[in-house]
Design brief:
three-stranded antiparallel beta sheet, Arc Repressor Mutant, subunit A, 3 domains, elongated, six-stranded antiparallel beta sheet, single chain, 13 helices, Enolase-like, domain 1, alpha+beta, 340 residues, 46% helix, Beta-Lactamase
Length: 340
Amino acid sequence: MALTQRMVEILKAIVDEFVSTAEPVGSKTLVDKYGLPYSSATIRNDMATLESLGYLEKPHTSAGRIPSNKGYQYYCEHLLKKDMDEEVKYALSNIFDRRSANLEDAIKASCRIVSDMTNLATGMLGPDAKNQTLEHIKVFQIDPKTAVCVFITNTGYTENKTFNFQEEVTIEDIETCTDILNDRLKGTMIADLPDKLESIKPLLNRSVQRFEMLYNAFAGAFVKFASDTLYFDGTSNMMYQPEYADIEKLKQLTRFFDDSKLFRSLVDKQVSENEVIAVTPKGTELVWKDDIAIVSSEIRISENPEDNARLMVVGPRRMEYSRVVNLLDFICKEIEDMFH
């Protein structure tokens, strides 16, 4: 059944009101606060129809209604505001440090910005590095017990790893180890690095004095590099959302943040029956899983989709979708302009 224009007006008002108050919405509020030019009886009838069609839900403890995942889906596909205020655009465009060292730094900075502006958790799902090859390794010694390792792939993607050694390591050992790895591992698929490192273990043992510490440091870094890159900022914001006053729900959400495979499957649209997807006209994707909403936008820095990253906002399904979607659209475009 297609929604009538009146039903669309009612659904939009209910979403807007519930996002603002976190309270179920009744017909009287729609008449008094939103000035809908219909009688309360007519609105109640349409609310009942919207509920029967799956766009609204009725909490057990209230006579009002709240949006369902299907209701949010319709809202995000058809009723979002199209753009941000010019003041917000100007402020954001001046926040970005266009001298950022790499894509990852720029995205992490964006996560902080979006998290601060939305009071939600913001994340980065990095390129699927397993399908890239290692181009080069650089290691910068900070002090005798600390070094920063930079991995660079054939697509230009970089990942940093800090090595904290238990004992002092000489710069000569670091340089010798790095030279061997660059010579023997260049062109290796990222997913194959741990096994390839194991195969050259005897050579490293003969050539490097502090062999064990350096070998273990690189082995751990390669395993991490071969897994999905998942980073979050602002997860503590979830503690202040009324939906997560229940400590068990908060624990469930915390576990959710650690599951990179789940995030990869969701943004790849590998969803189950209890999950709903929407795509905005500009390509921002939304997934609702139970009481959690994930809004994500691809940062296109290559023609190969596997080289691209995603900026995400994660929170309760009750969020300001127009604000969140427009923020992601704008920021992802800014990053693309910086690095494409």
